[in-house]
Design goal:
5 strands; 104 residues; STM4215-like
Length: 104
């Protein structure tokens, strides 16, 4: 499976969690976001080695859920994903942002 195939599969999982298609991968500033939404970017990666060779590699994404509602089930669904960790929550422009690192 290519990196693009893996990202598109991850994108579909995020759409399913959100319940709509307002999921954006590295959106340029010219894109008007519709809320609630998920914005995600590549963050880093993590590899495991065996016999001095790369055995497995996972790309990490910074996933930000943006909503007017500070208490939402989407947050629980995102944290329930395998290899997910919540970074922080903050408010900007009267919108709640919940940031996660998710390896996929």
């Amino acid at each position: 499976m290519t990196n693009l195939d893996r990202r598109l599969k991850f994108h579909q999982i995020l759409c399913d969690i959100l319940g709509n298609s307002y999921v954006y991968f590295q959106p340029p500033e010219s894109v008007k976001l519709h809320y609630p939404c998920i914005v995600y970017n590549r963050a880093t990666g993590s590899g495991e080695y065996a016999d001095n060779q790369l055995y497995t590699f996972r790309i990490a994404y910074e996933v930000i859920y943006i909503s007017k509602d500070p208490d939402n089930e989407v947050i629980l669904k995102l944290i329930a994903l395998p290899y997910s960790a919540m970074n922080r929550s903050y408010t900007a422009n009267n919108l709640n942002h919940d940031s996660f690192n998710i390896y996929f």
